[in-house]
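Sample intake sheet
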Amino acid sequence: QAEVPAMKYPEERAEFGGARFDGKILKRFEGVQGELVTEPLSVIASKTDDAADTHIELGKITMTVDSREGPSGLQLGTGSLKLASMTVKRENDSTVQVKDFVYHGVNKESDGLLNGELGYNAASILVDGAELGSQQVTFKYSRVNAAKFKAAMDLSAKLTEQNQRDGQASNGLTAEQSRQLAALGMDMLADNPTLALDPVIWKNDKGASQLNLSVTLVAPQNPQATGLELVRQVMQPLDAKLVLSKPMMTALGTNVLQSQGLSPEQAAQQVGRQINTMAGMAQMLNLAQLQGEDLVTSLLIKNGALTLNGKELPLDALQGMLPH
């Protein structure tokens, strides 16, 4: 057990309520088990004497961890973080508030492959008093080769350290360094890893919008392929579905415009027109289908073919969506 007492730093304009750790750290830091609780923290920061002050207030934080070093040298186990509240306010600018933020992470290794997930929930998000609703994001992964992933992490750290020594930190990776990392990344595709956003949810009292996406990656037949040809060979398959609730989006936009000075009636009318226009264009271009009060888009890339909302299209239709 260890404790840090409450502290005040008048010159730095910071106040910290203290912290307590209950648990144990294994030999050679091969694992950590326990709970860390930090009391509220308040900081007033500015980059320069002339810059506007930024007020940051963090409520009570509770972190739990149960991790051990796995066969491949990576930390495996579970972890979580609960933040009661956070407020970030810059003078003469926006105020952002987040309430009841919860993060979780799970990392497992079986037969040399990593499987797990990480994500967060935020019960309430407000900007300048405008309620933006709640958010949930969960990212999942499976069949990620642990040894190859560890090698990629080690190489990335080595290259970053090398660039810092050479004074090139601001220039990023060189072309050769990028090639080395890309080669390791391509090598991991041999195990057919699957990545997923399952789900991403944005919700308020009028409804919920949701994204579900999963993609299984395979080693390309031609490692030199680029652009659409690389997408065609690597994604087997990519499956995505986006559901946008019109009432939810209307309420969200109305709250934002009200916070900018519009009356409730003006805000609702303006947002309603914009959403109806967007929905009409999306349906006309077959980018979405109207199901009740939801705009729904489904996308599937499989065996080199693209299906959008049940209609088969040439994969070239994605050309404008890819970086050049």
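Comment: The helical segments are 146-165, 175-188, 227-234, 246-259, 264-284. The two ends are 54 Å apart (CA to CA).
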